[in-house]
Amino acid sequence: TGEAFGVGTWDKISVSIVGTRGETPLLPLDRLGKEFNAGPEEDFEVTPPEDVGRVLLVRVHKAPPAISAPRALGRDAWFCRWLHVTPPRGGALCFPCYQWLEGERSLVLREGTAKISWEDHHPTLQQQRREELQARRETYRWKTYIPGWPRCLDEETVKDLNLNIKYSVAKNTTFYLRGGSALAELKLKGLLDRKGLWKSLKEMRRVFNFRKTPAVEYVCEHWQEDAFFAYQFLNGLNPVLIRRCHHLPKNFPVTDAMVAPVLGPGTSLQAELEKGSLFLVDYDLLAGVRTNVINGRPQFSTAPMTLLYQRPGRGPLVPLAIQLSQTPGPNSPIFLPSDDKWDWLLAKTWVRNAEFSIHEALTHLLQAHLVPEVFALATLRQLPHCHPLFKLLIPHTRYTLHINTLARERLIAPGQVVDRSTGLGIGSFSELIQKNMKQLNYSALCLPDDIRARGVEDIPDYYYRDDGMQVWGAVERFVSEMIGIYYPSDESVRDDSELQAWVREIFSEGFLGRESSGLPSTLGTREALIQFVTMVIFNCSAKHSAVSAGQFDFAAWMPNLPPSMQLPPPTSKGQARLEGFLATLPPVNATCDVVIALWLLSKEPGDRRPLGTYPDEYFTEEAPRRSIAAFQSRLAEISRDIQERNHSLALPYPYLDPPLIENSVSI
Questions:
Q1: Is 513 within any annotated ligand binding site?
Q2: 359 labelled ligand-binding
Q3: Which Pfam families does its entry note (predicted)?
Q4: Is 544 part of any known ligand binding site?
Q5: How far is CA 306 from CA 448, 462, 469, in A?
Q6: d(CA 319, CA 464)
Q7: Is 6 annotated as a binding residue?
Q8: Is residue 8 marked as binding?
Q9: Contact 216, 552 (CB under 8 A)
Q10: Nearest to 90 by CA among 14, 20, 28
Q11: Sign of CA dihedral 490, 492, 495, 498
């Protein structure tokens, strides 16, 4: 029995043993009192009336007792970790379970050796695979939440979810207690319901006093600095947009005269473009999006472009120029570091607002939640419990369906946080996702390919790249070892019908059958399978951590990442002042609403499983267990390197430190 709160049962458990020569009747596992308490391992001796031959399956049945026992949590549920069966002849057989039985029901378990479909020769085992998948497909169904989005789990609320995909009692309780405490504090301070403007920059510090972190303090102190503005494109919340620029876009007419004060003598814009020292961040997807109404006031948005310069040697990356629209002209000036302080700060703040919108809608919601949900749902529907890929991937789907169902219920639904407190609202979030789905490609999900495609292999102090490549390499090596154990050849990959159905469903339901995505709909080689599975695990763990865990750190000081803007972008220079800057920022209540949400979404509410931690022992053979141990050792080495480097940084980059990466998208 599992060890968490509420996993034991008063119900009666019995088993039947299915062998090569038949099946036993139900054999009660019974003693006086409550046998199945949380935690212990319990032994029972059962005597079948006849020999059923070599054991193939164990059928576990749970039924209420004749006399009802007290039930603290409604329908009595039991979480079974595993059963060991020791027949009179031969060694013990382990049957991994790690599933809930709720109400009166049966569960069929297989011996723990991982098997691909072409390895199952007995008709009973073949039938069991088919029946298990059919039952799962009936339990976990697809639906279209919004047209043009990846399809998702067909459930309305977390109350409707199967216990096997729900938060544990401990995790759920901690989640709501943390949210409630932050909500109560800001309400008591009179901020949560205040619809007006902030009175001063200093007053904004009251938002994060309830949960200060060293990173929040650093951001508050350095947010106006050009070097920190540029640093965030490398190591902030959204480190996936910056790309090397060899040719300026025609709609971004930066001149030598504009950038000479930063570039210095002896060089030119063209020379630096050819040298590869200029980088571009373009928010063109925001062009023309509709904006929201907050507190009765229309909000505003821009689609800015930012040009950055990597100083020679290991000098810092710095901004060169900002244009706040995709259409140059007299009403869309190019802002420069040499401009008036408030003009330049306001331009940078508009960029940071665009960063908020693109990050939350695309990098976070679409790529780090909706896409991993596709992986999780396809895994449950297409891979049986005994499949080596199910055993490998199921820890990386833990709680993903719960947090995404909760997001559709409480975060992105009409009238919820995104809709009431961000500058775009859910309508334009949806529009952005639909636009990005037409562009999203396989290489963007594979970190080494993405780094090459953006031309950022050698930019210094890019910790997201450095740490991410180390973690990707460790995952890839682990996956390669595991695939090598179970797939002896490319032909064995092609012949695995369940694997091919899994890949095909990800392509059709997640990427809507779009060939231009580059996502494979079939896999023909071990090399292709290794890359695909590495991509799935990395995006369900490390990528999510990199773009989610720092949300509160970078956004608690709201001017660094404003969720909305209340005045139009400037159309000329020389007009900006502190008063206008404050009037442009989001109102007090919207600021608090978003910061509370980001506080909740940044921190795992207990019941954690860091990357490479597999307490549920799905694999019973020695070879995969050795690979798991080697993977854990490699992650420990990476962690030591990251922590050693972070000791010397004014602002550490912890978001890809393996002990801080969750195995799955669970918050």
A1: no
A2: no
A3: Lipoxygenase, PLAT
A4: yes
A5: 24, 18, 26
A6: 19
A7: yes
A8: yes
A9: yes
A10: 20
A11: negative
